Amino acid sequence: MHIDAFGLITQANGDGGDTCHREGLYAFGVWLNEQVLNITQPKSRSLRTQQIFDLLEIKPGIYVRHPDPSKWYADPSTTSRDQLMGVVAACAATGDRGRLWRLFKAVMRRGGFAQNTKRNWGEVGWKIPDPMFFTFGLFIRAGCLGWFYPLLLIHDLFDLVGTLTQILLPRWDENRRRLVRRCMDDVDDNNTVISVLLAVAILPTPLSWVNRKLYARFRPMNFGCTELGETNRVQGALSWYHREGESGGNPEMAELYRAAIERWL
After folding, report:
1. 192 in a domain, yes or no?
2. Nearest partner of 1 among 60, 57, 41, 58, judged by Cα
3. Is the pLDDT of residue 2 over 70?
4. Most CB atoms closer than 10 Å: which of 40, 97, 139, 224?
5. What's phi and psi for 9, nearest 5 deg?
6. Residues 6+ away with beta carbon under 8 Å from 154
7. Contact status, residue 137 vs residue 151, Cβ threshold 8 Å
8. Domains contained in the chain, number
9. How far apart are the first and last CA of the chain?
10. Which structural domain, as residue segments, surrounds residue 40?
């Protein structure tokens, strides 16, 4: 795993634009292995999860992608829904309801949107921030809030519709600003994997079970299968996404989820 001078996960080239998300993905994967699958994980990190997210939470409920003040990703106005889903995943792993509540309140104060009113990479211009309405079920699960089970059913219904939409319809490509069909290199399944496996571990519903089965059955072939030899298409997506590419990914992240994917996906 590529760790920088801050003690945080980055790409091999030091880019920390996705650090907040990767730290949540890592924390959730470790928790899933240790607490659900009973697989002991090596203790190789110098910082605990709470310390890591204390660095990333610059104000109550407000996060940066990475705290390096010399980089564009230290601007909280670039922190997207994906990055905040990493925070939710970490809260699920640590049981940190205080942090989860602060994040939820901050999201609600923004009318249900993420923080990213600015574009990535220091590009000039403003943008509509990512909506987070369809992630509220993740907050319920991360907080183990069983009394909101009826709302969780609604969330899982939307997730199910979303999975069917991904299977049957083109997706919106933010970079190209148009609808495109999923191709072999379209492998950013990180948040889908978080959502599906969180629903396995905490407050599963019949709808989340159906959604997981559909995702596992109909997730298309990808380069992880054809180039890396993965037989499971979900594992193939993660392995290709986190491969050691031009900027140097973290293949250990994909390996962290292998046992869970083999069991449930």
Report:
1. yes
2. 41
3. yes
4. 224
5. -75, 130
6. 137
7. yes
8. 1
9. 24
10. 19-264
3-state helix, strand, coil in the chain (%, to 5): 55, 5, 40
Inside any domain, residue 221: yes
Is residue 247, in this structure, part of any structural domain at all? yes
CA distance 153 to 41: 33
For 183-208, how does the pLDDT look when each residue is reduced to its tens digit (9 = 90+)?
888 899 999 999 999 999 999 999 99
Question: For 22-45, what is each residue's pLDDT tens digit?
Answer: 999 999 999 999 999 999 888 778
Both structure tokens of 50: 């709470």
The answer as to whether 14 is a domain residue is: no
Tokens of 249: 């990914």
Type of residue numbered 242: H
Residue 170 clears pLDDT 70, i.e. is over it:
no
Q: Tell me the per-residue pLDDT of 202-239, one tens digit each, with 9 for 90 and over.
A: 999 999 999 999 999 999 999 999 999 999 999 999 99
Candidates 184, 248, 220; CA nearest to 22 is 248
Contact 162, 207 (CB under 8 A): no
Its pTM stands at: 0.93
Residue 223: CB atoms within 10 A of its CB come to 19
221-226 contacts at long range (C-beta below 8 A, 24 or more positions apart): 221/184, 222/184, 222/185, 222/186, 222/187, 223/184, 223/185, 223/187, 224/187, 226/184
Which structure tokens are listed for 59? Answer: 């104000």
Report residue 40 as tokens.
């002991």
- Tell me the per-residue pLDDT of 81-133, one tens digit each, with 9 for 90 and over: 999 999 999 999 999 999 999 999 999 999 999 999 998 877 777 899 999 99
State CA 109 to chain mean position distance. 22
Q: Is 57 helix (H, G, I), strand (E, B) or coil?
A: strand
